[in-house]
Every structure is written in C-alpha cells, then in structure tokens.
From TrEMBL:
Source organism: Marinobacter excellens LAMA 842
Record GO terms (molecular function): ATP binding; metal ion binding; polyphosphate kinase activity
PTM characteristics: An intermediate of this reaction is the autophosphorylated ppk in which a phosphate is covalently linked to a histidine residue through a N-P bond.
Gene for this chain: ppk
Domain Polyphosphate kinase C-terminal: 360-524, 532-701
Polyphosphate kinase N-terminal domain mapped to chain residues: 37-143
Pfam families xrefs: PP_kinase, PP_kinase_C, PP_kinase_C_1, PP_kinase_N
Name of protein: Polyphosphate kinase
Biased composition (Polar residues): 1-15
Physiological role: Catalyzes the reversible transfer of the terminal phosphate of ATP to form a long-chain polyphosphate (polyP).
Length: 713
C-alpha cells in the first residue's frame, strides 16, 4: 500500500501548541524519554482546531461551514467539562499525575489556556468577519438590535412580553438573595442597576438566567422583513427589554456570560446499586465546580472580577468574547432557513446486492458474511436483522450490548418486541456512556417493562463492545448469528459517523461472542476465546504481539492502524521499535495522537494523518501485512489506555479474501487523500495536504461516497 505525495499547508503558527524539541538522533534512543511523546490534552486541542479550520474551507457548503464552527464550540465545551476539570481536580486534591510526556498538570493547564484563548479568538474572528458576511451575501441575516425596523422592534416587544417575560426569573443580589447556583453552560446576564426597588432595596446588581425552555435563535416573520431569512438572538431580545424586568429602576448595563462546570461523574467501584447511584450523580453534574467563564467583551472589568470571585476562577479561566457566549446554538440556522443549496447534497445509502432481495437476513448471512461501511451503506440491515429475529419463530434468544442508541430507536423497539413475543432477550446497557447516562437509564426502564433482562455490565469496566448475538434453531440444531461493529447502535450516528458493521454465522466467532456475553452477565474466570481479541484480557497483548511480528519482518513489515486516538505508551513503544526495525507504518488517527512521527532513529518510518470532513471518522481498523497474507481486524477499541486496559472491547477478524480486499481498498483511499487529510509533523504541528500542481484533488470521503452510495437525490 502506498501513500501519494502531496503538498502541505501549515496551520497558522499563532494557533498551535508550542513546538516541542525533536529528540536527538542516535542508536540508543530511550523510548521512555518524555520528549518522545506529545501531551494528550494539547493533542486533543489540536484536533478541535482542525475541526474549526473546516469553517474556512470553501469546498464545504456555507451552512455546513457554520456548523463546523459550532461543532468546535461543542468540542471545546466537553474538553473543559471533562479534561480541564480533571486536571483541576488533580490540583485541588493534591493528586497530580504526570504522563509519559512529562508535563505537570499546572503546566498543561497553563498551555491549554494559552492555546485555547488563541483558538477561541480565531473562532469569533471567523464568525464575525467571514461567515456572517458570507451569509449576508446569501440573504441570511442576523439582525442586531440597532438594525431593527419599527415593525421588527414591535414584533420583538410582543415576543418578549408573551414568550420571555412569563418564564424569566431575574434575581437581585442582596443579603437575602445571594448569588444563584447557575446551571452548567446556561446563558445568563449580569445587570447593573441604579435606584431602589419597591421594598427600598438598592442592590446595584442582578442576575438574569435566560429561560432554558426558549430557543436561543428566533426567525423573524417574513411580514416584518424585506425578504431573505432574518434571525434574531434571544440575548438581543433580553438586552433590549431588560428594563422591563426591573420596573422603576434604571438598567445601566446588561452583559451575557456563561459558566462551564465540571461535568465528569465520579462513581465508586463497590456500589450496590449502580442505577440509583448514577441518578444521584446526574443531579449534581449540572452544578459541579466552575472551570471556565465566558463573558461578553464589553462587560466592565469590575463585573468580570466579581464573577471570577463568585466562581473561584482566575484570569487564566476567563474568555472574553465578541459575540454570543454560546455559539453552539447557531446550529439551529440549518433548521431555521430552507437553503438546500448551502448544505451538503443528500445521498441515498446503498444496500448491498446480497441483501437487496426479499429473502431473510439469516439466509443472506448464511451464504457469506456481510460487511457494511456506514453511512455510505445503509444501517437498516442491522435493524432488519433484529426485527426479523423478533418475529422469527425459530429464534430462541437475543443478546445485545447498548452503549449509545436512543430510547426511542428502532433497535430498542425490536428488542422489546422480541421480549413480548416470549423470546429470551438480554440487554447489557452501559449506564456510564458519557452524556448519555440519563437516556440509558430511561432505556433500561423501558426494556425491563417489556420483559427484557437488563444487565449493567461490569462495575469498573465500561462495556464499549458492540455485539449482537441471535440464537436460532435450524434443522434440529442451534446456529448463532452475530453482528459486531466499530460504532454504536444509533441510527442517527450511523448517518454521521463512519463505522463498519460485520454480520456472520461463523461458528467460532459465534462461540466467542457467546462466551463474552457469559462473562458480562455471569461471574467466573475469563473464558478461552478462539478468534476475537477482547479487552481487558487479550486485546492489548495481541495488538503488541502482532506489531512485534511485523517488526520481525524488517523492511517487509507493514502496519496500518485507523483509530480515533492513540495514547497507550506500550503500543506507541512497540510501533517505535517496529519503525526502528524498518517496518512501514501508516496511522490514520482522527483525534489525539501522543506518538511523535518522522523522528530519525525513532519513528522515521511512521506517518500520521488525520482525516476531517463531512463525516466523523469513527472506524477502528488494525491492518498487519504479514508478508503478503494480511491480517485485518475491525474493532470497537481505540489505542488508548482506557480502551485496551479498563473497558470491555472487542476486535474481530475479517477473514474472507474479498472483504480483506475491500477494507484494504478503503484504507488505501484514506492514505491517498490529498485535501481532507492533515499530516502530523515531528514538532507537533499539523500540515494540511494539498494536491501537487496538476494533480487531481482526492477527498477520501467523496471517493467513498461515489464508490458506495446511490446517486445524490
């Protein structure tokens, strides 16, 4: 497999983490030396920035460029809620830990602050000076208060009085009204007041939480506008009529702000009732310690300092922004305006010929295994398999893991239907799937009501494996049908994330999956598994041993990994050793990468690229050349400590020659990408590939769309 040459364009120097010194060349390089590794948190910031840069890529439609800007905001929210919060917790309780990169938590926090401030400043510059002007040219307007016509101002006044005023709760600050406990990431206003209220109080200050039930962006009716799509921010409406919230007093200033809190959940390993404990923790998530304060940049300094003191934050945690404090809400533009010409063209995910006929999924899978690549190929066969299993009188039992799926999904309905029809149905639900906990609690209750046996996995080990096992009686014997995937059983995600689905009735794989379910639902020693690798037992060791096998082949060694992230030090060191032995290694890593590539004597044979495009790259693939007889595995696991050592994960072999060739072709497509790929340099910066002069532009996701889908609608 080869990688085509391409020119590169560097990310702006002012917006990347400070370059790290490249290790010296030498035969006796210490693989444990901290300079051989990038910091995990700073690498994650780099990924977020690559997402932001899509907002400037004019090959994406305009509204989708705006959505990329919003996704950057959402990613940064989670980064502060989880990663920054975790570092602050280490500092707070004196539990500082140092990673393989050697950086202390306080050093990491300082560098995060420097880099994140640059990124967020650039984000608002893109919004204000690039995207909004381009939207204006397309007759899509964000109408500011100073631009309202008399008719628009009257409509806003009516909206405020009818929709906002009845549900807003201003809070004056005085001894009997202390600073309120504000919900994580909620929009709020700090208001300067002059005068006395009805009780003679002269507080001088109030807090106005924006009603969470109201949209942050509202479309103005066409009859008060002169054409086009005209949108107004809820914050503008509240600013314009803040005086009505404090009758008889003068509003001297009204400034929006937003607090990001620690949203990670801490659960003990010896819980008697995980579901009950989780319900309690979810209530506290909304009010964790503050980790970031966003404030409008026109807010007076004394008010900014007041807020910082209230939340126990410092200047390092302060982000003064020129625009709305929650840009994520701009995602609503896509649904508020009807402009298909400014969004991605639609496409119809294909269904392979093997299952296009009306024969049963079971008959099709018995003929040969099935491999699907979502979203290019339809997710519906996975749903059809479960639906048919629910209704099939020969099916005796269904078992499935659920990490993220949605309580109202067709998958859930099929499982409930199967249970109501008297089949033995077991669902292993991971309650601790981050930010899906409440939904999974609801899902568990719904399935239990239908008669499904619900198990919450193993305390201390998140169940991240994606498995379905169907037991069917055929010709006097039992046959197992299996679905294994790299992604979640969520139909919405299957339209946005790239993931493999594998369906087979291979006896060994069926037996392996059955044993994995036995381990999850019962108790006992780890069972011997024939074909699958499974964490936390064999996956880590087998991955390293296969890397070492390729290293033993010297220059004939070939490794390709496609991960979301690579952080696990032992895997990284094994890859370094393979590179030193001469093996050729390509890593397609969407997000975090702690491995330093292209260092002479250490990793000159390792190339790392990140693909950023319309779809979120989510497939995990391990390719080992094996001297011309490749071993290929798809997996639910990334190359991270948590996946390989402290989660329940699976890696499953792709053994049929045609399917191996198909996965290999897909990997080749990613490695040939010369415009949607970003190449990691030895100093930690990323360069975006550009076609050579005269070279055809090749965007891997567009190639796969053309290869695998039906024509656009």
């Amino acid at each position: 497999m080869t990688t085509e040459n391409a020119q590169t364009a560097e990310i702006s120097d002012q917006s990347v983490p400070a370059p790290v010194d490249v290790p010296p060349v030498g035969e006796d390089i210490n693989l444990d030396a901290s300079e051989n590794y990038f910091n995990r948190e700073l690498s994650q910031l780099q990924f977020n920035y690559r997402v932001l840069k899509q907002a400037l890529d004019t090959t994406h439609p305009l509204i989708n460029r705006l959505i990329f800007c919003c996704i950057f905001s959402s990613n940064m929210d989670e980064f502060f809620e989880i990663r920054v919060a975790g570092l602050r917790q280490q500092m707070k309780y004196g539990r500082e830990t140092v990673g393989v990169d050697g950086m202390q938590p306080d050093q990491v926090l300082a560098e995060i602050s420097r880099v994140a401030h640059d990124y967020i400043h650039e984000q608002y510059d893109i919004i204000n000076n690039v995207l909004i002007p381009e939207l204006e040219k397309e007759n899509i307007h964000f109408v500011r208060r100073r631009e309202w016509t008399p008719a628009q101002a009257e409509w806003v006044r009516n909206y405020f009085e009818e929709e906002i005023l009845p549900v807003v709760s201003p809070i004056g600050l005085d001894p009997s009204h202390p600073f309120p406990r504000l919900v994580n990431k909620s929009l709020n206003f700090i208001v300067e007041l002059d005068g006395k209220d009805a009780f003679g109080r002269e507080t001088g200050m109030a807090i106005v939480p924006a009603p969470r039930s109201l949209p942050r962006l509202v479309r103005l009716p066409d009859d008060v506008c002169d054409g086009g799509d005209n949108l107004v921010f809820l914050s503008s409406m509240i600013h314009a009529h803040a005086d009505e919230l404090f009758p008889g007093m003068e509003v001297k200033g009204c400034y929006q702000f937003r607090l990001t809190r620690n949203a990670d959940l801490e659960l003990e390993d010896d819980l008697e009732d995980l579901a009950s404990a989780l319900r309690g923790e979810l209530l506290s998530r909304r009010f964790g310690d503050g980790v970031r304060l966003e404030v409008a940049d026109n807010c007076p300094e004394e008010l900014v300092q007041f807020l910082l003191r209230e939340f126990g934050l410092t200047e390092r945690d302060l982000y003064q922004v020129h625009g709305p404090v929650n840009l994520t809400r701009l995602m609503a533009v896509g649904s508020l305006v009807d402009r298909p010409d400014l969004t991605y063209s639609s496409f119809s995910p294909s269904i392979p010929r093997q299952i296009r006929s009306k024969e049963s999924m079971f008959d099709a899978i018995r003929k040969r295994p099935l491999l699907l690549l979502h979203p290019y190929e339809n997710f519906s066969p996975v749903v059809d398999l479960l639906r048919q299993a629910a209704k099939d009188p020969h099916v005796l039992a269904i078992r499935q893991t659920l990490y993220r799926t949605g309580a109202d999904s067709e998958i859930v309905e099929a499982l409930a239907d199967a249970a109501r029809r008297g089949k033995e149905v077991t669902a292993v639900i991971e309650l601790r799937a981050r930010f899906s906990e409440a939904e999974n609690l609801e899902l568990a209750s719904r399935l239990q009501e239908a008669g499904v046996i619900v198990v919450y996995g193993v305390v201390g080990y998140k169940t991240h494996a994606k498995m379905i096992l169907i037991v069917r009686r055929e010709e006097g014997r039992l046959r197992r049908y299996v679905h294994l995937g790299t992604g979640n059983y969520h139909a919405g995600n299957a339209r946005l994330y790239t993931d493999y689905s594998f369906m087979t009735c291979d006896e060994s794989i069926g037996d392996d999956v059955n044993k994995l379910f036995q381990q999850l639902t019962g108790m006992g020693k780890a069972l011997k598994i024939k074909k699958l690798f499974h964490a936390p037992f064999t996956l880590h060791n087998r991955l390293i041993s296969l890397i070492e096998r390729e290293a033993g082949l010297g220059e004939n060694g070939r490794i390709i990994f496609k991960f979301n992230a690579l952080t696990e030090p032992q895997v990284i060191k094994a890859l370094y050793r393979a590179s030193q032995a001469g093996a050729s290694i390509d890593l397609i890593i969407r997000g975090i990468c702690c491995l330093r590539p292209q260092v002479p004597g250490l990793s000159e044979n390792i190339r790392v690229r990140s693909i950023i495009g319309r779809f979120l790259e989510h497939t995990r693939v391990y390719y080992f050349g094996n001297n011309g007889k490749p071993d290929v595995y798809c997996s639910s696991a990334d190359g991270m400590e948590r996946n390989l050592l402290s989660r329940v994960e699976t890696a499953f072999p792709i053994e049929e020659p045609a399917l191996i060739e198909r996965v290999t072709e897909d990997l080749d497509t990613y490695l040939s990408d010369n415009c949607q790929s970003w190449v990691l340099q030895s100093d930690g910066s990323y360069l975006q590939n550009q076609p050579e002069e005269g070279e055809e532009r090749l965007a891997s996701q567009l190639v796969l769309l053309d290869r695998l889908t039906s024509k656009p609608n």
